[in-house]
Amino acid sequence: MGKIRNDCSIFVAFGNKKIKIPVNPEEIEIQYPTDHNTYDVVGKGEIIVPRKPSLKIVSWESFFPGSRSDPYVNSGAKAPESYEKSFSEALEEKTVCRLIISRSGTYDTNIQCIVSDFKTTDKGGEPGDVYYEVEFTEYRDYAPETVSIISASEEEAGEAVAEPERPVETPTLRVGAAVIANGKYWYDSYGSKPYGTANNLATTVTRIVSGNPYPIHIGSYGWLQESQIQITG
């Protein structure tokens, strides 16, 4: 865990509402847990069977400042109760949000997550300031995939009678279209920060706004240009 410099910006998007953390924490902890299994095998001893990584966990401690004129307070800071309300409501309502940590000159963190823990503390001698601890846990979509099962009789019938050829449909850009995205995607269709980077990202088109610099919105990520996507279905 290292010190977070002033050129690091932390944003949390709760649906259409985006907030910027007013005071950067001294350190941010990002855990990359695993779920590997170990077994004792006769003649070999202990072995490990690798499995997919577990959910990332991001946490830090900081405070919401009562005074917004101090030099360490980021621009656009609001009253402490505004932040406390956003985090506590997201925790209670299990809101899926997006955490974006933008680090100048290095890598960015951009994940879907939920607020898994949040608590505040009032300290004597520091009126107006609200100290807090927050923890985010990565969110993964768990909607089941639909699988078509063909019975033996249907398969045999298909072999006996050849299905006529169907015309090949050219994929069109539309809401709901499956796409592969590459390059930077932005917070809004005008190219506002923060941004993330897609690398052969398989997702879907969720919104189209004609006439804006970045008119295509993908998944729960952000906005980009039509030239950055390949329509696959």
Please give the structural blueprint.
Layout: E1 8-14, E2 17-20, E3 28-31, E4 37-41, E5 45-49, E6 57-64, H1 80-93, E7 96-103, E8 109-121, E9 130-138, H2 152-160, E10 178-186, E11 195-208, E12 216-218, E13 222-224, E14 229-231
Antiparallel strand pairs: 1-2, 1-7, 3-6, 4-5, 6-9, 7-8, 8-9, 10-11, 10-14, 11-12, 12-13
Q: What does the largest sheet look like? A: 7 strands, antiparallel
Helix % is under 10%
If you compute it from the alpha carbons, what radius of gyration comes out, rounded to the nearest whole angstrom?
Answer: 24 Å
Q: What's the architecture of the largest domain, going by CATH?
A: Beta Barrel
Number of domains: 2
Oligomer: single chain
The CATH class of the largest domain is Mainly Beta
Instruction: Provide the succession of SSEs.
Output: EEEEEEHEEEHEEEEE
Q: What is CATH's topology name of the largest domain?
A: Elongation Factor Tu (Ef-tu), domain 3
Q: Please provide the count of β strands.
A: 14
Question: Which band does the percent of strand residues land in?
Answer: 35-45%
- Tell me, what's the shape? globular
Helix/strand class:
mainly beta
Number of helices: 2
| Cα separation of the termini | 43 Å
